[in-house]
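Let's practice the habit of predicting before peeking. Look at the sequence and jot down your guess about where helices and strands might fall. Then scroll down.
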Amino acid sequence: MSRYSKKSLEQLETCCKELQEIFAEVIKIYDCTITEGHRNEKQQNELYKANLSKVQFPNGNHNKIPSDAVDAYPCLKGLGVSYDANDCSFMAGVVFVTAERLGYKIRWGGIWDNNSIKTNRFKDMGHYEIIR
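Done guessing? Here is the structure:
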């Protein structure tokens, strides 16, 4: 069974309990890494300026304490962390099923609200957020 690194655990601990529960289950069946939970003002605004986020601080789900968003990517045996859209899409399926099994609704940055990766204009393949 896979385990999160110390850095991944530190990032996950900045997230809401629902995301912590979801990703505590995901790691039992799919190897992944947590790259970001809470994002401070400087981090958020730098990502906005670089067109890697659509919102400025404090309007992002990463900006809440605890964070209602997490960035997570698959870890592939022998290859390490993958940012590939296909690998991230496969992982998203695992995350969606896990969240549903636990009774939570999530949104993924690969499809946002339009239900199609092909028509999604802003792809944030590692982004997951809890829907309240």
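How did you do? Residues 6-130 form a domain with the Muramoyl-pentapeptide Carboxypeptidase; domain 2 fold (CATH 3.30.1380.10).
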